[in-house]
Specification:
This protein is of the alpha/beta class. The chain has 16 helices and 17 strands. β8 (193-197) and β9 form a beta hairpin.
Length: 484
């Protein structure tokens, strides 16, 4: 078979972490050179697994992966590895090459320019913001000059300017790109096709066209299949009724009943397997801890200016039903402010005593990855209640085996849904949310935004997702970029 300029081909590939329940079942698709492809599917469908199979981190249970001979692969991961946090910028990029590179500073400068970032080379990775770390992870992939660039949620933590810069770069990038992202507008700007992973069947379907058109095409296909099956079911039932009637008659009537049985069998064979829409979480409420006194007082904040922290005076006092949006460019100090507030490490930002705090960290470092999902949910409850726990977990699509799995085995999107399930069971007086849209399937976001808008406690949010932010009625805003 002539595959032309195909650079990636999955041939009847199956894989599962649990061999009894494969995530991918005989995946069969190809990607041509220079294509810009979105990998799409519900949380847990196997999108990141596809990337791990391509990089060789995982091996197929069955089938094969064919890559063009000599093709180099690099991946921009979602989260900075913890073992890189103590690296300087130079040490971080030096890991790519494994030997001393005399022109490494120049190569670092070139890739940092591509991701619209400037920094000193002796600064440690842990001292960068989440958005800056996202840019470094992309630059780490680009410095490898890959023929196949894999990007896993590359817009997470990026501000608007960062997303615009990345979009422009990808539109002009003359090599193959596969992207996992839940940012629909970002994807639609450059996508030429979609690999759709079906979480129910483990199959992978290939679609051509931009992202929005493909989403519409999938929805239309679902409706066509449902309509076809509905018509066949009607015909089947009609013939079964006639069979029941004729089978009790004699002679020719019995022969007619036999013929109708053959027609029923043929119609049942023609039934198509309907592609099911990705499940969306249902409306939910986060109960709030009753608290009558001021919950948060912020008298001063640190902002980063010219790579140095500068303290600025502010005056913010938040009670229940009040919501604060903290904004500003990447690296200004937003996440640092949230961390210091939650850990009570900053005298300029104080939480009242006895307030229960729900904290959504952008890297999920507040979760114990060694715990099971069930234990994590149970640990947040004041009074353990198995029935309530399972009902809330199911609301966030955390059912069956997932409850017994370790948190570390969950997809990033499932970890995000786990955080919201924990909030429902915790009943906090204060929610601190650092990029709560990260990793979450875009279908869930309007429901989450509505729940946060209706939350009756106090809330502080950092988010670079303007459509999400617009759905929440904030009573206060703090732009660190302006006060700096």
């Amino acid at each position: 078979m002539d595959h032309g300029n195909v650079i990636i081909r999955f041939e009847k590939l199956s894989f599962g972490y649990d061999k009894e329940n494969p995530i991918l079942r005989e995946a069969d698709f190809s990607v041509r050179e220079d294509a810009k492809i979105t990998v799409m599917g519900q949380n847990g469908a196997g999108k990141s697994t596809i990337f791990k199979l391509l990089t060789g981190e995982l091996k197929p249970d069955k089938g094969n992966i064919h890559l063009k001979q000599g093709a180099r692969i690099a991946i921009g991961t979602q989260v900075m590895p913890k073992d890189r946090m103590e690296d300087t910028v130079s040490e971080f990029f030096a890991r790519v090459f494994g030997e001393k590179m005399h022109n490494l500073p120049a190569r670092i400068a070139d890739v940092l320019e591509i991701v619209n970032m400037t920094t000193v080379l002796d600064k440690k990775i842990k001292d960068f913001s989440g958005g800056q770390q996202a840019r470094l992870l992309l630059a780490y992939a680009l410095i490898q000059d890959p023929d196949i660039l894999l990007l896993d949620e590359p817009t997470n933590n990026l501000d608007t300017a960062g997303i615009e810069h990345l979009t422009g770069f990808l539109m002009c990038y003359a090599k193959t790109v596969l992207v996992i992202s839940h940012d629909a507008d970002f994807l639609n700007a450059f996508t030429e096709g979609v690999l759709h992973l079906d979480v129910y069947t483990g199959k992978v379907d290939r679609y051509e066209g931009n992202y929005f058109n493909v989403v519409e095409e999938i929805a239309a296909r679902v409706e066509r299949d449902r309509a076809k099956n509905a018509q066949l079911l009607k015909e089947i039932q009609d013939r079964k009724d006639k069979i029941n009637f004729f089978s009790h008659k004699g002679g020719k009537m019995r022969a007619l009943a036999a013929k109708l049985r053959d027609q029923v069998a043929e119609a049942e064979e023609n039934m198509v397997e309907v592609k099911r829409d990705d499940r969306t979480i249902r409306d939910f409420t986060i109960p709030a801890q009753p608290f009558s006194e001021p919950i948060v007082t912020i008298s001063s904040v640190k902002v980063i200016k010219d790579h140095e922290p500068v303290r600025k005076e502010v005056s913010i006092k938040l009670r229940k039903q009040q919501k604060l949006l903290i904004s500003g460019p990447n690296g200004i100090g937003k996440s640092t402010l949230l961390r210091s507030l939650a850990s009570e490490a900053d005298e300029g930002a104080v939480i009242a005593r006895d307030v229960k705090v729900g904290y959504y960290r952008q890297d999920f470092s507040g979760l114990d990855f060694g715990q099971t999902v069930y234990t994590s949910l149970e640990s947040i409850m004041e009074v353990p209640d198995n029935e309530k726990l399972r009902a809330v977990a199911a609301h966030f699509l955390l059912t069956g085996d997932l409850l017994r799995n370790q948190i570390g085995s969950l997809s990033e999107g499932q970890k995000g849904l786990l955080c919201f399930a924990r909030f429902v069971l915790q009943e906090p007086g204060l929610l601190i949310l650092d990029e709560p849209t990260n990793h979450i399937n875009f279908r869930h976001l309007p429901i989450i935004a509505e729940a946060l808008n209706n939350y009756q406690g106090c809330m502080i949010v950092v988010s670079h997702a303007p459509e999400f932010v617009a759905k929440i009625s904030f009573t206060e805003t703090l732009d660190l970029g302006i006060i700096s």
